[in-house]
Write a structure and sequence with these properties.
Length: about 325
């Protein structure tokens, strides 16, 4: 059946989020620093894996005689197989036909507006969960899968309060997925000495951390450090000039970024090149069955955290 001339159709409405993934990436990137800092990759299954290589310790006695006839084999350098599960996060929007009609009269598309709000909320939910101290879980019928958060992965460059302990993995050594979260310890104040120790530990492990994520009160404490100190550095962009607070350590500059979406008791020292978000499904939307005089849409993503090398990162846990 033909459409009457000049009928308003969705093709002419510019406020509908046609590409949710593009919109997701453009929404307040500085508000969710872990999503901004992390790379992305494609996950091929609900359980996704990667490998981590740990080179042998330096052999300072590696001298052999000239013309050695039978050199012995060295122990093979094998990768460690690591993994995590994806999890699904969603938001559902329901808007009455009347609300849509009223919005259209005012040159606004109410469903699109609500989708934009829910997409931002979804991004904030994801950012928080990626930074939470939770273990991975395979899920089951009626039970949601869970992706392990960053604190459950970090076991090498750590500073914990009394009674605190690292998480564990499902395999031998560091292999497998985090099957138990870290144990919280007694909280205490952060000091410059603790921060310097963790940064040095990361560097000794071969990492080049450049980012510190922390809560608001810790950010203010770090700003008051008096050692190598924090300084303001002008960041120039074609459209933006902003003062970025950095910590000048003995091993390079680290940007100090306050993060709303993490536990206030955790401070992370991060090498952004060694953390990724693996998407089985990037943010998408689809209409749901209409119920009476309303329209419903579902927005969702399926994703998990990949910590390429846990030795590239550090954590100061149990901060008061």
């Amino acid at each position: 059946m033909a459409v009457t001339a000049n009928t308003q159709e969705t093709y002419g409405v510019t406020t509908i989020l046609e590409d949710l993934n593009e919109a997701f990436n453009s929404i307040t990137p500085t508000d969710t620093p872990i999503i901004k800092a992390a790379g992305t990759r494609k996950a091929d299954n609900t359980y996704f894996e990667w490998t981590e290589t740990d080179l042998a310790a330096v052999n300072e006695s590696n001298r052999v005689i000239e013309g050695e006839a039978a050199p012995a084999n060295d122990v093979a350098t094998n990768d460690v197989r690591k993994g995590n599960y994806t999890q699904i996060s969603d938001k559902t929007v329901e808007v009455s036909h009347t609300s849509n009609a009223v919005s259209a009269a005012g040159q606004r598309q109410k469903m699109a507006t609500q989708k934009a709000h829910k997409l931002k909320e979804l991004k904030r939910d994801m950012a928080q969960m990626l930074m939470n101290n939770v273990a991975a879980a395979a899920g089951a019928s009626g039970t949601a899968r869970a992706s392990a958060g960053l604190p459950a992965f970090i076991t090498s460059n750590v500073a914990r309060g009394s009674g605190g302990a690292n998480g564990t993995t499902s395999g031998t050594g560091e292999a497998g997925y985090p099957n138990a979260a870290a144990t919280d310890g007694t909280q205490r104040a952060i000091t410059e000495t603790i921060l310097k120790t963790v940064i040095a530990s990361c560097w000794d492990a071969g990492a080049e951390p450049s980012l510190v994520l922390c809560g608001s009160s810790v950010k203010q404490t770090i700003s008051a450090f008096t050692g190598n100190a924090t300084r303001y550095k002008e960041a120039e962009d074609s459209k933006l000039n902003a003062a970025i607070d950095v910590y000048i350590s003995d091993f390079g500059e680290l940007q100090i970024v306050p993060n709303r979406f993490q536990r206030s008791r955790d401070v992370f020292v991060i090498d952004p090149s060694q953390v990724k978000i693996a998407y089985l499904e990037k943010p998408k939307s689809k209409p749901l069955a209409e119920t009476g005089h309303s329209k419903r849409e579902l927005i969702w993503a399926e994703y998990g955290l990949e910590v390429c090398s846990q030795k590239a990162h550090g954590i100061i846990a149990d901060v008061s």
